[in-house]
């Protein structure tokens, strides 16, 4: 039996997104609604702000750290270079912007070794997806212990695509392979030793943990879906369409409990509300083509074996359409009549609730305490039947 740091089990769940990092501290001795929460700027937003301040001050930047999420910090770096600013980076930090370092150099970034960095007169910007010390400081400010019995981490990882392989397609092929190997949302959960080598951002995220504790990784898309399933109204239907409209990615899962019937992934900023509605309807009908999603700057669409045919023959009754994510307003007043999922009364930490479920899946010794607190024990049995 594990020895906990206190009378109850405490799991730290951190969902690293593009706009925010959502942090939840689960305590098995408290109702899940009382779990402590922090919704803070994402690490890439923090790095972007530091780069922009250097640009405004006319200072070069030195990017150090590890492979992390791009997006805002990438755009800030491009603006910095366009403004005539200089930029230096270590090789590991540079992979945040492209796995092919020659492409990073073509952007105008000069790669340097650690010993060269000592002589640089530049603003140092550390890239990383996880800052446990910052979280500890925030908790300490409210007299909350920073001792944890486990950590569940999530981010969106495109994976290190081979040269000539679209990173959009490479990520989608990863999603497809997971479902083909084991058709269950919980199959996207990985222990550190199980992570595919090509998920370099996820590996770096787990490697950033500076304490000895059980870990689990779960992609943010499946995490949000597993969280949405914890809303009783979403869970009660035989089927669900869960739409996670994140700040960067839009991911839809057509589900039977935790079993995946079909899915598609796009970029939230590239699609209109009308397109989201159309894609959802055609995913349910089994007529949404992978080529259409990929051709419009998305990742793709996938149907589990026989699902497209089953959908075309299915009765016309539509499953509940549950929406979560910070961009969910794109479907306010939609013809889909969506339900805005609020697992345990809080949409913004849907991903964290999904991460806790993933932790329970990969650490059976803790499963009962977590699943009972989340109210998924009964659903867990039904989904596995």
Short recap of the structure:
The chain has helices spanning 43-56, 72-82, 91-94, 101-107, 114-117, 132-141, 167-181, 200-207, 220-228, 232-235, 273-285, 290-295, 307-313, 350-362, 367-374, 377-384; strands spanning 10-16, 20-27, 36-41, 61-65, 87-89, 109-111, 123-127, 150-154, 189-190, 215-218, 240-245, 249-256, 259-267, 300-303, 320-324, 339-340. The chain is α/β, with parallel strands linked by helices. Helix 9 crosses helix 14 and helix 14 (350-362) packs antiparallel against helix 15.
What does it look like?
The structure is a single chain. The protein has 16 helices and 16 strands. The chain has helices at residues 43-56, 72-82, 91-94, 101-107, 114-117, 132-141, 167-181, 200-207, 220-228, 232-235, 273-285, 290-295, 307-313, 350-362, 367-374, 377-384, and strands at 10-16, 20-27, 36-41, 61-65, 87-89, 109-111, 123-127, 150-154, 189-190, 215-218, 240-245, 249-256, 259-267, 300-303, 320-324, 339-340. A six-stranded mixed beta sheet has the order 3-2-1-8-10-9, sandwiched between helices. Strands 14-13-12-11-15-16 form a six-stranded mixed beta sheet, with helices on both faces. A four-stranded parallel beta sheet has the order 6-5-4-7. Strand 2 and strand 3 (36-41) form a beta hairpin. It is globular.
Break the fold down into its secondary structure elements and pairings.
Elements: E1 10-16, E2 20-27, E3 36-41, H1 43-56, E4 61-65, H2 72-82, E5 87-89, H3 91-94, H4 101-107, E6 109-111, H5 114-117, E7 123-127, H6 132-141, E8 150-154, H7 167-181, E9 189-190, H8 200-207, E10 215-218, H9 220-228, H10 232-235, E11 240-245, E12 249-256, E13 259-267, H11 273-285, H12 290-295, E14 300-303, H13 307-313, E15 320-324, E16 339-340, H14 350-362, H15 367-374, H16 377-384
Parallel strand pairs: 1-8, 4-5, 4-7, 5-6, 8-10, 11-15, 15-16
Antiparallel strand pairs: 1-2, 2-3, 9-10, 11-12, 12-13, 13-14
């Amino acid at each position: 039996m594990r020895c906990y740091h206190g009378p109850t089990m405490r799991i730290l769940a951190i969902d690293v997104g593009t706009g925010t990092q959502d942090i939840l501290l689960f305590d098995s001795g408290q109702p899940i609604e009382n779990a402590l929460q922090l919704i803070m700027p994402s690490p890439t937003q923090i790095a972007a702000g530091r780069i922009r301040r250097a640009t405004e001050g006319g200072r070069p930047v030195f990017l150090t750290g590890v492979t992390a999420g791009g997006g805002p910090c990438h755009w800030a770096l491009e603006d910095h270079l366009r403004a005539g600013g200089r930029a230096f980076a270590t090789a590991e930090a540079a992979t945040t912007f492209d796995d092919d370092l020659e492409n990073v150099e073509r952007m105008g970034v000069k790669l340097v070794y650690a010993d060269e960095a000592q002589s640089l007169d530049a603003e140092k910007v550390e890239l990383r997806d996880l800052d446990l010390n910052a979280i500890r400081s925030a908790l300490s400010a409210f007299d909350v212990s920073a001792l944890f019995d486990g950590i569940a981490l999530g981010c969106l990882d495109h994976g290190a695509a081979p040269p000539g392989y679209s990173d959009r397609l490479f990520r989608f092929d990863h999603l497809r392979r997971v479902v083909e190997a084991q058709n269950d949302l919980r199959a996207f959960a990985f222990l550190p030793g199980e992570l595919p080598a090509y998920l370099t951002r996820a590996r770096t995220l787990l490697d950033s943990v500076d304490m000895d504790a059980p870990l689990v990784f779960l992609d943010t898309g499946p995490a949000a879906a597993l969280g949405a399933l914890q809303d009783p109204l979403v869970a009660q239907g035989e089927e669900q369409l869960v739409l996670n409209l994140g700040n960067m990615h839009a991911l839809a899962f057509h589900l039977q409990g935790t079993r995946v019937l079909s899915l598609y992934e796009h970029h939230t900023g590239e699609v209109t509300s009308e397109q989201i509605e159309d894609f959802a309807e055609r995913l349910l009908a089994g007529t949404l083509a992978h080529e259409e999603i990929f051709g419009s700057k998305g990742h793709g669409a996938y149907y589990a074996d026989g699902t497209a045919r089953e959908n075309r023959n299915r009765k016309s009754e539509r499953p509940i359409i549950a929406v979560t994510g910070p961009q969910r307003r794109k479907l306010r007043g939609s013809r889909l009549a969506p339900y805005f999922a609020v697992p345990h009364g809080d949409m913004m930490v849907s991903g964290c609730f999904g991460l806790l479920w993933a932790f329970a899946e990969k650490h059976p010794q803790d499963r009962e305490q977590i699943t009972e607190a989340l109210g998924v024990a009964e659903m867990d049995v039904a989904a596995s039947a």
